[in-house]
Amino acid sequence: MDIFNAIFVEPFVIIAEVPLFFVEVVIGGLMAGVMYSLVALGFVLIFKASGVFNFAQGAMVLFAVLWFTGLIDDYGVNPWLAFLIAVGIMIALAFVIERLVLRPLVNQAPIILFMATIGITFFLDGFGQTIWGGNVRTLDLGIPQTPIVVGGVFVNQFDLFAAVTCGALVAALALFFQYTPTGRALRAVADDHQAAMSVGIPLKVIWVIVWSVAGIVALVAGIMWGSKLGVQFSLVLVALKALPVLILGGFTSVPGAIVGGLIIGTGEKVAEVFWGDAFGGAIEDWFAYMLAMVFLLFRPQGLFGEPIIERV
Amino acid sequence: MLYRETGQFKTSYAADHAIFPIRQDRIGIAVILALAYVAIPLVASNYWLSTIMLPFLIFSLAALGLNILTGYAGQLSLGTGGFMACGAFAAYKLATAFPELHIVVVFALAGVITAGVGILFGIPSLRIKGFYLAVATLAAQFFLIWLFNRLPWFTNYSPSGVITAPPRAVFGDIFVTGAQATPIAKYLFVLTLVAVLALAAKNMTRCKIGRSWMAIRDMDIAAEIMGIRPLTAKLSAFAISSFYCGVAGALWAFIYTSSVEALAFEISRSFQILFMIIIGGLGSILGSFLGAAFIVLLPIFLSNAPGLIGIDMHVDMVTHLEFMIFGALIVFFLIVEPNGLARLWQIAKEKLRRWPFPY
Predict the structure, then answer these.
(1) Which residue of A117, A127, A286, A309 to mutate against B (max B Cβ within 10 Å)?
(2) Could you tell me if B216 and B228 are in contact, meaning their C-beta atoms sit under 8 angstroms apart?
């Protein structure tokens, strides 16, 4: 009966007694969710445009932020300049990946491309750390991690900043996709590769652009995560958390990545804080995946994904 | 010239359905088995046996398991590490709870328990497929590792969370686990298990159940229309694959490392085994072995290579460079031969058959 009590009674009692605490946990979860969304966004961009399930997104996050902090720490480069250089590196990386990996693998099965991105993951992890070393670096953006009070609820200032940045990034991407010729070409490619090629959209250029955009998103995500957790190898593991987010939102939907991230972030925090003790703690490790798995049973294409139609 | 089947006529259905229909293949496999059973124990040092041959064989077994699921049945899984952990902890609980149980029975039962867990986590595969399924199997990976880490019951309340294999003998006093076990005994025991299980896997993939897996892999809707039950085909693939992974995990914990914690079966282990089957060849028994050999030997080679050519490097640097070369090699392999090492061997055989003529 104890476990029954701990799962079905106590958490609700706590929520009813201290609703403000619950709100705080939810807000904390939403903020963490925004960060997951940032990583998931990169996945979605590449999957939409090239049908590649890019496992290397996590490694790109680490790689990008290693360059950013490395330049600032070791060479005293101005942060803005370092940001620009890192963006340049990510664009160069997109070129190299398109030329050396994607182009020779055109028309291969999706699993082969997926494996190739795992290869890229290993390569980037090794390359970044060969150049910048494997030590944990701290990244200070000058934004305090102290909470401020908004309407009677404590909110972490840094989380707020991350949420605003993410929102701005998503808005910029949405505008880019909606109103520029390149963005329109990207959407055309996402819709139908062959039709897009037949009207003269250069697929290879589009791939480079998509990978570059994903690289820049990775850089922003890396800066956010890096200043929260320190710039280190474990950032790659954070990227794994983006996978259930993707499932929830659907692989092909940008709004899905955002909403999925928010659901996963909130669900995970609420589960950990209120139900964690009942299961012995640290359920954050698997809760997101279980949530995604159960969710998939009822809606296999995710929240916003295109319905899966199969023909023989 | 040597590898030519001219003049070998088959006069019975049995001969036609043999695993190795060509005489040269039969001789080849006999030679490999003889090498494995006689030459390697005679020649190899204890170091070679326990740090290269044992992990190679155990990884081959795990790769076989994953190949059944991913290569033959087409269900992408990232939960191999979790299933291996399941086998390891099931074997530990069984061996400590029933000390009189024979070690082979313990391993088999551990495999059966893992098969049950595999079926449980395979249920979503009936609704979802492809990369979605891969992420769903991550749930198995993280949940199982968390479970074995958190619940002290699984480690018999050991404070460090590490399980240590109790000493067990196969016949009389030939110990295969624990401190008294010699590397040779361990090696021969694992070799026998792996050989038997590989033969079983080969036969399974040639009969009705294996054909239904392949039909599901190639197109599940078409297979369903042809009268193959997706439920039985997919869940049996999950069960048998998990059985293999479970036995591999138990062998890993009991014979290779002899004491192990749940973290040894982390997500990176799953990826390692996935690499093996991709590099070795999806949907190939031989490929599982080739891939395992490649992945086991490559890091050893890479970490020794700078020393061999006389470059002195920092350990950290070597690890990072290893990562880089490993990643680059995987991409290189995929570009050159996406169907894996097994396909290379197949091409070589075709060429040998026609040699010295080009076609």
Answers:
(1) A286
(2) yes
**Are the C-beta atoms of B285 and B67 separated by less than 8 Å?**
yes
Model-level ipTM above the cut of 0.85: no
CATH number at residue A72: 1.10.3470
How deeply is A17 buried, as exposed, middle or buried, from its count of CB atoms within 10 A (0-12, 13-18, 19+)? exposed
CA B193, CA B32: separation in Å to the nearest integer? 16
- Interatomic CA distance for residues B4 and A103, integer angstroms: 38
Mean pLDDT of B198-203: 94
Is A75 within the bounds of a domain? yes
Q: Which residues of chain A lie closer than 8 angstroms to B322, CB-CB?
A: 126
Tokens of A226: 């890096």
Number of CB pairs, chain A paired with chain B, less than 8 A apart: 137
Return the top range by mean pLDDT from A35-44, B89-98, B319-328. B89-98
Parent domain of A160: 2-298
As for how many domains chain A has, the answer is: 1
DSSP-derived pairing of the beta strands A153-156 and B162-164: unpaired
What's the gap in Å between the CA of B104 and the closest CA on chain A? 33
Total-model pTM: 0.87
List, for residues B235-290, the tens digit of each pLDDT value: 999 999 999 999 999 999 999 988 888 888 988 899 889 888 988 988 899 999 99
